[in-house]
Amino acid sequence: MSSPELADKICSRSELAGRIAALPKPLVFTNGVFDVLHRGHVQYLHAARQLGGSLVLGLNSDVSARLLGKGPDRPLNRADDRAMVLAALASVSLVTFFDERTPVSLIRVVRPDVYVKGGDYDMERLEETKVVREWGGQALAIPFVDGYSTTSLVQRIRAGRVLRKAAFLDRDGVINLDRAYVHRWEDFEFVPGAVDAMRRLAEAGYALVVVTNQSGIARGMYTETQYQTLTQHLREHLVAQGVPLAGVYHCPHHPSGKVFEFARDCDCRKPAPGLILRAAKELGLSLPDSLLVGDKPSDIHAARAAGVGKAYIVDSDNAESGQDATVAADGHYRDLQRCVSAVLDA
Ligand SMILES: [Zn+2]
């Protein structure tokens, strides 16, 4: 929203006295860098605002933020950009800036009734506390919500450990019509609406990961190479439509297969969770935030065993898809498109 009210909440030192006089009392003041706004910040500012009639936020200018020594490239966002984000919060009444290491001189201008500091501070030792007491104000600390900090967020991003959520999709019966042991691109026919549904999932932030039992390889009905050729066609076809797959994982095994190297028990044939666990490890996926769509009870069981957050079943012609799957799944839909619509529009 680019309404004039948003920028109106940001004010320079020279206008400050007049603007503060117009704010509802008691006046609460806090300060910080708020470099990459996160949930911890938002809950903190909300709590601070509850302590009075209005909340004035003293934002460390870029010069001031650098004095805090959080790193050579901090702050990541410039002061006027940070100010605009903060001005959009309902809890914040006014945003202003300070260039010094501490907000003491700004506090003398604002003269808040309540000075709030975020974190575990011994308020008695702070210069800010002595200052607000000069006019009978009080000072208190509000601890930040555990587990949120810009610094740790930046570290996780640098380490490449920000976990994505995934949509695990069974292949035959979910993406393409299940014509039993499909292994040639000529025989691969998309379920109507499936590509659009995958695009919607991708746009909603889900990494698309195909997890598919391909026991036809162990059974000698087609080779691993034929499977890989089909998979390459599938990937290229989807990329051309703007729907890239993050990964395709298959189990070539079957305990009673006739191809020696694939004829064995394994930990990847669904309902075992091996394919999902391997994808999560290799692609950096957050399983509790992920979902799975399958057409058989074995898909749902694999999702449960792996700890996937939600597991949905879609109807198919397959006789295995019975009552118990419906009960075990988080939802039961006609096809992928209807499933995705229900999940994303919920
Ligand atoms: Zn396997």
Kindly describe this structure.
The relative contact order is 0.10. Strand 10, helix 14 (323-328) and strand 11 form a beta-alpha-beta unit. The chain has helices at 4-8, 13-21, 39-49, 62-67, 79-87, 104-110, 127-133, 150-158, 194-203, 215-218, 224-240, 274-283, 297-306, 323-328, 336-344, and strands at residues 27-32, 54-60, 94-98, 114-118, 138-142, 165-169, 206-213, 247-251, 291-294, 310-314, 331-333. It has 15 helices and eleven strands. By secondary structure, it is an alpha/beta fold. The strands form two sheets. A six-stranded parallel beta sheet has the order 8-7-6-9-10-11, sandwiched between helices. A five-stranded parallel beta sheet has the order 3-2-1-4-5, with helices on both faces. The longest helix has 17 residues, at 224-240. It folds into two domains: 4-154, 3-Layer(aba) Sandwich (Rossmann fold), CATH 3.40.50; 165-344, Rossmann fold. Helix 9 (194-203) packs parallel to helix 15. Bound molecules: zinc ion. The site of zinc ion has 5 residues, from loops.
What is the compact description of this entry?
This protein has 346 residues and is an alpha/beta fold.
| Total E-strand runs | 11
Specify the structural class.
alpha/beta
Largest sheet: 6 strands, parallel
Strand content: 15-25%
- Share of helix among residues? 25-40%
Give the overall pLDDT as a whole number. Answer: 90
Low-confidence stretches: 318-322
Name the CATH superfamily classification of the largest domain. Answer: HAD superfamily/HAD-like
Q: How many angstroms separate the termini?
A: 25 Å
Can you tell me the CATH topology of the largest domain? Rossmann fold
The main sheet orders its strands as 8-7-6-9-10-11
Number of discrete helical segments: 15
CATH architecture of the largest domain: 3-Layer(aba) Sandwich
Rg, Å, rounded: 28 Å
